[in-house]
Amino acid sequence: MSKYTTEEWAYPFVGMVFGIAAGVTMDNMLVGAALAIIFSFVGYAIAHRSKDD
């Protein structure tokens, strides 16, 4: 099983929390779920981009 770095699990988690918080703020959990998925992928991509630098 592969070992994840701190950035590889923390950045997507922060993105997920931000997406859920945005959905709660907009009072629309469907949008929050969609944003959580999108932001978690963005966080994972940022973690990999910063690792390559």
Keywords:
single chain; 53 residues; mainly alpha
H-E order = HH
Total number of strands: 0
Mean pLDDT: 87
Query: Biggest β-sheet, characterized?
Result: none
- Secondary-structure-based class equals mainly alpha
* Total tally of structural domains: 1
List low-confidence stretches. none
Keywords: Membrane, Transmembrane, Transmembrane helix
Transmembrane segments: 20-47
Structural description of this entry:
- This protein is mainly alpha-helical.
- The chain has one domain.
- 83% of the residues lie in helices and 0% in strands.
- The chain has 2 helices and no strands.
- It has helices at residues 6-25, 29-52.
- Helix 1 runs antiparallel to helix 2.
- The termini are far apart.
- The model has no long low-confidence stretch (mean pLDDT 87).
- The chain crosses the membrane at residues 20-47.
- Keywords: Membrane, Transmembrane, Transmembrane helix.
Topology:
Blueprint (H helix, E strand, L loop, with lengths): L5 H20 L3 H24 L1
Helix pairs in contact: 1-2
Quick structural gist:
The protein has 53 residues and is mainly alpha-helical. It is built from two helices and no strands. The chain has one domain.
